[in-house]
Specification:
- Pfam families: Dimer_Tnp_hAT.
- InterPro entries: HATC_C_dom, RNaseH-like_sf.
- One of its GO terms (molecular function) is protein dimerization activity.
- It is a single chain.
- The strands form two sheets. This protein has a five-stranded mixed beta sheet with strand order 5-4-3-6-7, with helices on both faces. The chain has a two-stranded antiparallel sheet with strand order 1-2.
- The protein is globular, with a radius of gyration of 37 Å.
- The relative contact order is 0.09.
- It contains 30 helices and seven strands.
- A hairpin with a 2-residue loop joins strand 1 (about 75-80) and strand 2 (about 80-85).
- The longest helix has 28 residues, at about 145-170.
- Residues about 1-20 and about 20-60 have low confidence and may be disordered.
- It is an alpha/beta fold.
- It has four domains: about 15-40 and about 65-140, no CATH class; about 215-335 and about 650-670, Nucleotidyltransferase, domain 5 (2-Layer Sandwich), CATH 3.30.420; about 340-545, no CATH class; about 550-635, no CATH class.
Amino acid sequence: MIRSKKRPVPVSGKSVITNFLVRINNEPSLSESSISERESVQDVASDHETSQPPTKRSKQRASGFDSSWKQDFPWVTEVEGGMMCSLCIRHMCRPARSAIGSAPWVDVPCTWIARDSLNRHQRTETHSQAKLLEANRLAPRNLVGQLEEMGCLQKSARIAAFKNLYWLMKQEVPHTTNYLPLNDLVKLQGCSILANMNQGQNNKGESQRFVQEAVLAMGNIIRQDILTQAIDSPWYTIMVDETTDISVISEMTVYIRFLKDGRSQTRFLSILPLNDCKAETITTSLTTHLRELHLPLDRMCAFGSDGAPVMVGSKNGVAAQLRKLVPHLINNHCVAHRLALAAGQAANGLTYMLKFKDIIGDLYRFYAKSAVRTRGLHEIQELLQEPDLKLVEAKDVRWLSHDKATTTLRRCLPSVYKSLDREAEERNDARAAGLAKFSQNYQFVLTLHMMCDVLPHLSDLSKAMQAKDAIYTCIKPLVLGTLAILQGLLNTPGEHFQAAPDRVARLHADGFGITVPTEEQVQHFTDKLYRPFVQQLMSNIEERFPDLPLLQLFEAFNTTKFPTGDMGNHGEQDIKKLADHFNLPVDATLHNWRQVRGSLQGTEKKAEEAMEWVTIHLRNSHDQLYKLAAVGLLLPTSTADCERGFSTMKRIKTENRSRMKSAVLNALMTVSIEGPDIEAVDFGKMVDAWHQEKPRRTVF
């Protein structure tokens, strides 16, 4: 009986790899001399074999590893459960599609123990690459070559360390406590290049000084790229806003807007600590910082802020003080803040609307402060088969929160009523009883549905105003469109308000203590509350968005208003006033305008589209008109980018990192907001910048 031959069962990973690595470290390298010695031994063995009488050979080779294979394949090593390649392991040459830890011959043994397996591995691209690396390692080199190689290895190690640090910065992970553990993890995964960073006990690339210097170097490189683009622009715009961080330090975020390839770009510039929030302090801090960055003040065409008195005060505000230094400066109040003020103040003259606003906030806090009440509300929503929703907080400082708060409450109103009644009856909760009494009223339901008709249009307008790189000339058409919608709602109430009386009737039928209004009561509500609120809202918006004479001059670029026949002197007076305001040569600018005006006629371009066409195509040929169009594209619309910068700051500078220095905070925010994806970063440039900051013992 012939016994079936069983292949050795491969054993996993760790014990095999450990034993093999010990053996590899004890074995000599595969130098040319060792290979030639093995070849000479092979020749002697072959001569000895020829002198012996021939013996009968078995037709079948015994299973398992054949030690004679090492004569032709000196790189193969037998391990428990298979074979491994010492060259591929030494140089970490894995197939491109193999995951770290699972590559045969390198991470795990090859379990196909046959000569064909050795031949196949020897022909692979990864093994050929390992042979070249081994030959290069064994090649004779002089001292200069060895130093050059050492420098390359040290730089490669620093680049790997910079990549790890950059990833932490980009993901807003605390770098001081996670840098070394991340390096250890990368080494554990097989990245041995980091070991070359260790150049002695006091030069390991692990100190906090190295980490902070690397952080600052990466932040400065990214900021310098932004400054290079801003300096190349004919004008730039500054947008600022002020807040307080976790350390109770006043911080001012600064964003810059400039032209790149003819299109406006809004980028984070820096965050500046302030000793106080006086206009003089803010102005001095801002102008000093711009001079340090070599940004000429006379090329600042506009200034954007949130509209606080310290910013826009007519006599001593920041904008007024900047205008003394830059006479042509245009000051613009954030349009999103204007809209929020217009909407928030529409209810000031209506007593019931103020009470309604308070009840919306009380309902949110009633559930937000109690897990038991919140869970009870969810159970009722499941029983009534209503959406599983949480009430949303309505904040004056959050521009879209009122829309979300009223919409959410409208969708789960029966569940809220049922929950309030339950809390009042079973737990004798006086707050629940009071909220139920006020909200279970037809006026409350009508007001809620009225707000659900009006607020979504304001939310859409606010979102458009807060869009990144929004152009100011787009704002007026958006405002006019929203006013037209509100006028339509004033004449004909929206679908939610029209359905509100039927909703009240259904709630009454479900047993809630709410009275169904008569037609006269609904009409009285419409006349006394609905129409006054919408009219006041429209009046506030019109007042907050007046036609500014200087900004309206940019409508000269609006080709939809061009005459169909002879152009005559169309737009020349507007262009002349703009050129005079920004100290541009009037005659040259008018000459450019007359040449371009004919090309724009009939194109049906809006003002922002026409100005962008000029900045993209006519920079060199019509330079004066190009500068004028650039101003129109760079006018600040909102400070929403500054608000986003505050959110980034609060995610980075937390309570556990409250001692962070301003320079480090600047670098971390710059990388987080403006840093490209890690694949697109030139880390060699960053390492060189770090290396050149001061004399270092590390030689590249």
